[in-house]
Specification:
Blueprint (H helix, E strand, L loop, with lengths): L2 H14 L2 H8 L3 H15 L4 E3 L4 E3 L1 H22 L27 H12 L1
Antiparallel strand pairs: 1-2
Length: about 120
């Protein structure tokens, strides 16, 4: 288990209040999020989240763990941010959607050209 990843995922689940929202934000399958949380709970020998079919709530142990790890994750982000030399370049994922009428499920050459140009920068 990647403990750092599991802690980050746990943090997102708590902040967003659910596995589905966290999975969408993190760009990973919901099953992966669930597995990471289960592995983390097993590693800690503690139940961090109470799950039902309709919601997720944080246990007492989970609240303590979240509070401590959230502080640590913020510090880690600050440390990592100190090494980011070029803050003028955009970072992260870009999601592009378009509607094409009559193109038979194939993107126009302009869209392909745009995405290629974007990937070079």
């Amino acid at each position: 288990m990647d403990q750092l990843l599991a802690i980050k995922v746990f943090s997102r689940v708590v902040e967003l209040g659910g596995f589905t929202k966290a999975a969408e934000l993190l760009g990973m399958p919901k099953t992966t999020v669930s597995k990471l949380i289960s592995d983390l709970e097993l590693h800690l020998s503690a139940k961090l989240l109470k799950r039902t079919t309709r919601n997720v709530t944080v246990t007492a142990e989970g609240a303590i763990y979240f509070e401590r790890t959230a502080r640590w994750l913020r510090e880690l982000d600050d440390i990592d941010g100190g090494f980011d030399v070029d803050r003028t370049k955009p970072r992260g994922r870009v999601q592009v959607g378009y509607q094409c009428v009559g193109c038979q499920q194939r993107p126009h050459s302009q869209v392909i050209g745009f995405l290629c140009a974007l990937s070079r920068h």
